[in-house]
Design goal:
Elements lengths: L1 H22 L6 H50 L4 H10 L3 E6 L6 E13 L2 E13 L2
Antiparallel strand pairs: 1-2, 2-3
Length: 138
Amino acid sequence: MRSLTRSMRLAPSRRRRDEAPRRERRGFSIIEAIVAVMLLSFGVLALASSAAMTIREMRASSQRVSDAALAATSFERLRSFEKCGVITTKAASISGMTATTVAIPGAPRIINLRYVLPVQAGVRKTSQEYRSSVPCVL
């Protein structure tokens, strides 16, 4: 009798072991793997695009800084002269620089300086304008 009950106890457990692996499958389906690879590739492409844009903007800002330094140096060089005629002559010799004299009665003469530098922003070409005023004597 003991042997009969022992075999009855084993039979149901064997059945459960056979059914269990179907429900507990592990791993990913091919569709899940494809979707994961596509999402990863979109993320990598977005990072590459933003890196390229960042590099382009850094180059443009570096160009703007050097242009501003050039304009400031030119303005300071012109401020070192005191006579209006010398300032306008020197300003005319600098490419892109224009000088306009402003005369107000009872006040010292002022020369308005305008320095226009060409800037290439990607494919299109634009210009950056810098302005300053210099007091002068006749």
